[in-house]
Amino acid sequence: MSSDTTTVRTDDTRGPGTVFVTGGAGGLGAAVVDAIASAGGRPAVLDLEPAKGDTPHVQVDLSDGAATESAVAELVGLAGAPDAVVTAAGVDACGPLEAIGREDWERVVRVNLLGTAAVVRAALPHLLERHGTVVTVGSTLGLRAVGDATAYCASKFGVVGFTRALAIELAGRVGVTLLIPGGMRTAFFDGRDEQYRPGPDAQLNDPADVAQAVLVALNQPPGCELRELVVTPSREPSWP
Question: From CA 133, how far away is CA 127, in angstroms rounded?
């Protein structure tokens, strides 16, 4: 009888295991951290800001690919190898293309798309060993374009394509889920010009509710995957 030395996590009844969350210091990422901890998992955070409480974390600028790869290795040393990765970090730069500086525009793509790829790439050896899971966070604006959001749409359309290709590439070895959230009540809209903020009557989801969808993806049994999840307020204007 041949032996198989691949490590497969078997403690699904005790939670989602060790999960690296980008952007876990705030917004949807922080809600995902709380949800994982409540479900018996062990969240660990990669973010420009420190995580709250005693959650293991490494501060890193996800726009820097080399620094991101080093940060993943450092976080493995702090929290152990990941069973899953959730890429919830995201930034935006609103306005007409000609009004947004090159650095601001490109930073959106570097954080949202290239940072996502860098984290997954760095964590992949561990995920392959453990038959783990990747959950990327796209956006309804990764499926439907709007004006004054060229950087954000470009980055999130990229996340959609990256994730769909990754699911094909890793089929049967690592689970891959694309989460597509609509508007949420987070600090994401803070600091914007008034015209780019949700109106007073806007219906926005609680990020804690959206985080429950992440748990559903993480808790799928081996061989069963949720490829894509769309989670929006019932009156979401950017869907379908």
Answer: 7
